[in-house]
Amino acid sequence: MAETSKQVSDSGPRKPPAAGKGRPKGATNKMTRTIKAAIEEAFTKVGGADYLAKMAVQQPAAFMTLLGKVLPTQMEHSNPDGSMKPSTIRIVAAAAPADVPSDS
Asked: What is each CA distance from 1 to 4, 23, 75, 95, in whole angstroms?
């Protein structure tokens, strides 16, 4: 009897032909783009930066929560002398000026 042998290459598990061809890294999906556009439109309609400044005075807790969510939690920087030694960053919330009218 003649022995037949077949060599099979072991290239790992088979992948579908379109594997790895998803959305490019960093691309947002359609729903995210739509929601962001709606938020930007609403922000413009209520007054933009002027509205945020007013809310910072009227609702400081909510404003600070917003800042905490949109500002980066870590920042890389160098000191004026070019070194990377630690430095202190101080964030101080100012009291509402007396001449700013309140809507309460």
From this structure: 10, 55, 74, 97
